[in-house]
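Reviewer 2 asked us to include a model.

Predict the structure of this chain.
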Amino acid sequence: MGSVKDFIATYDGDQRTVLSFLDSLVISFPGVTSKISYGIPFYHRKSWICYLNPTKDGKIEFAFPRGNELSNEQGILDSKGRKQVMSVTFGSYDEIPQELLNEIIQEALLLDEEVPYAPKRKKKS
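Predicted model (structure tokens):
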């Protein structure tokens, strides 16, 4: 498997610009590491913090696996019908609200630090 930088290099134009910016933003937080999992970039400390998912329509989904546990005070995260994951999608660099994303990432990191991730297991019948 290649690195996140190799992954980003396979994209062009707006997708590459958005991927590069979001990668740099997330990695700028202390202790955050990245690797390719399930074919896309995931960022983690103790557990997964967020991931970048290029969509078929040429946009980039910036998703938080524990999004349902975030406050979403900024009002930009969307569950898209999912129970846990929440995300925001960008088509170009100009659409990225940097301050709001900083707040969301900081909250996700705080959650990761203070509330251990405990996957919900289905009860055996």
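Residues 98-114 form the longest helix (17 residues). The chain has one domain: 4-114. We have added this to the supplementary material.
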